[in-house]
């Protein structure tokens, strides 16, 4: 399951971060920039619902200049070695505005063929770390992203998808209120009991 959240960072915050990185020609995120991204993820309810994160890795800055690309790879199972975190979920936050560069699409293949993704600045894409990941050749401009990995409380992606579907339905009910209280309570019960059944400490 690939999830896209368009409001992890505002376009203005992403542009500011991107501009600061370009001006200083940084090769890695400093503590403040990393904290902005991590805090944004931990405070986003739908990201938390979709990823069920237990731990997040240190964010990594990725810059692709004109002519650069990456071949299709599967991420390492453990980030940071044996004492690091298990990579269940890949997380990419787009910093560059999509009209500032040509090409550079994220290509994800979870076993059903490649899906090309190019999102606006501030958008986060969440995908199973077992998927093949590639970046298409950048034809113009510079593509900036932040990447990190999550160890999930729920290791199985199919189980995470079920929990997300139920939780998102509850979220819509809370927003629009088109269900009886009893129906809402039943969904909450299912969600909590499934999480209790599948979550790993």
Report on this model:
The chain has helices at 11-24, 31-42, 45-51, 157-176, 181-198, and strands at 3-5, 53-56, 60-64, 70-73, 78-79, 85-86, 89-94, 102-103, 106-109, 115-117, 124-128, 132-135, 138-140, 143-152. The protein is globular and about 55 Å long. The chain is α+β, with helices and mostly antiparallel strands and 201 residues long. It folds into two domains: 3-152, q2cbj1_9rhob like domain (Jelly Rolls, Sandwich); 158-198, no CATH class. Helix 3 (45-51) runs antiparallel to helix 4 (157-176) and helix 4 runs antiparallel to helix 5. The strands form four sheets. Strands 1, 2, 3, 7, 11 and 14 form a six-stranded antiparallel beta sheet that branches. A four-stranded antiparallel beta sheet has the order 4-12-9-10, with no helix packed on it. A two-stranded antiparallel sheet has the order 5-6.
Which helices and strands, and how do they pair?
Blueprint: E1 3-5, H1 11-24, H2 31-42, H3 45-51, E2 53-56, E3 60-64, E4 70-73, E5 78-79, E6 85-86, E7 89-94, E8 102-103, E9 106-109, E10 115-117, E11 124-128, E12 132-135, E13 138-140, E14 143-152, H4 157-176, H5 181-198
Helix pairs in contact: 3-4, 4-5
CATH fold description of the largest domain: Jelly Rolls
Helix content: 25-40%
Structure class: alpha+beta
Distance between the terminal alpha carbons, to the nearest Å? 23 Å
The number of distinct β-strands equals 14
What portion of residues belong to β-strands? 25-35%
- Assign an overall shape: globular
User: Uncertain segments of ≥5 residues (pLDDT<50)?
Assistant: none
* Radius of gyration over C-alpha positions, nearest whole angstrom: 18 Å
The CATH class name of the largest domain reads Mainly Beta
Write the element-wise H/E pattern from the N-terminal end onward: EHHHEEEEEEEEEEEEEHH
Count of alpha/pi helices: 5
Oligomer designation: single chain
């Amino acid at each position: 399951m690939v999830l896209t959240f368009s409001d992890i960072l505002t376009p203005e915050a992403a542009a500011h971060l991107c501009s600061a990185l370009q001006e200083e020609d940084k090769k890695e995120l400093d503590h403040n920039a990393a904290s902005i991204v991590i805090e944004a993820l931990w405070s986003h309810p739908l990201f938390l619902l979709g990823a069920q994160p237990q731990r997040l890795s240190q964010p990594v800055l990725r810059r692709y200049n004109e002519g650069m690309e990456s071949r299709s790879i599967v991420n390492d199972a453990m980030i940071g070695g044996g004492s690091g975190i298990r990579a269940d979920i890949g997380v990419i936050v787009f910093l560059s505005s999509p009209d500032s560069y040509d090409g550079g699409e994220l290509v994800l293949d979870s076993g059903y063929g490649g899906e090309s993704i190019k999102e606006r600045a501030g958008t986060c894409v969440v995908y199973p770390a077992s998927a093949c990941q590639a970046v298409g050749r950048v034809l113009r401009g510079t593509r900036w992203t932040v990447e990190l990995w999550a160890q999930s409380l729920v290791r199985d992606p199919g189980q995470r998808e079920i929990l997300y579907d139920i939780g998102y339905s509850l979220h819509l009910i809370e927003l629009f209120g088109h269900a009886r209280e009893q129906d809402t309570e039943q969904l909450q019960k299912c969600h909590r009991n499934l999480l209790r059944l599948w979550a790993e400490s």
